[in-house]
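Hi everyone, sorry if this is the wrong subforum. Our group has a chain we'd like a structural model of before ordering constructs, and none of us has done structure prediction before. Sequence below.
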Amino acid sequence: MPHKALIVIDVQNDFCPGGALAVAGGDEIVPLVNHLIASHDHVVMTQDWHPAGHSSFASSHEGKAPFETIEADYGPQTLWPDHCVQGSAGAEFHAGLEWTRAELVIRKGFRREIDSYSAFFENDHATPTGLAGYLKDRGLTEVVLCGLATDFCVGFSALDAVTCGFKTSVVMPACRAIDLEGSLAAMTEKMRAAGVHLL
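Answer:
Right subforum, don't worry. Here is the predicted structure as C-alpha cells:
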C-alpha cells in the first residue's frame, strides 16, 4: 500500500509565460509534472485562489510597486502583481496539465488579509489549510513536491511538510523559481538544512 502523495504546487496560467506573475520557463515543467502524476497513486493539487483586492497585491497599497516588501501583521510580505484572482483565466490550471487525476485540490490565499505560500499553512505559519490532517487521515506519510515556484510556494510547502512530520522530497527539475535577489539559493539551503530530499 503506497503511503506517498505527490503534491503539485500552483501550475496555473498566471505563473506561466504570458501570465500576470510569470515564472521563467514555468510551462516547461508540465510534461515532467504529468509524468510524475501518472507514476503516483495519490495526487494533490494546490491552486492559488485570491479574491480581487487581496492584501498581497501591490495594487491594494497606494504608492507601492510589485516586488516591494511591506510589514504585515504576520511579518514581511512581498507585494505581487494582481494574480490568480478567483474565477479568472489566470487562476486556471495550465491547459496541458493532466490535473484530473488529483484526489484533492486545495485552494489557498483566499483569505483577503493574509497570503498563503505553503500548501499546509497560511503565511502566519499558524492557520492550517487542512492538508496535513487530510494526508494523515488517509495514512499518507511521505510527500513529493513539484511545481511553481521553487523559492516560494514549493519551498515553504516543503519546509512545512517536514514540520508536520512528513518525509519530504522536492523534484527540482519539475520546479521553476522566481529568484528575487537570491531567493532560490536561500530557499534551497533552507530546504536542505531542514532535511528535505532534493531530487
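For your construct planning: Strands lie at 4-9, 43-48, 69-72, 75-78, 104-108, 142-148, 167-176, 197-198. Residues 151 and 186 are 8 Å apart (CA to CA).
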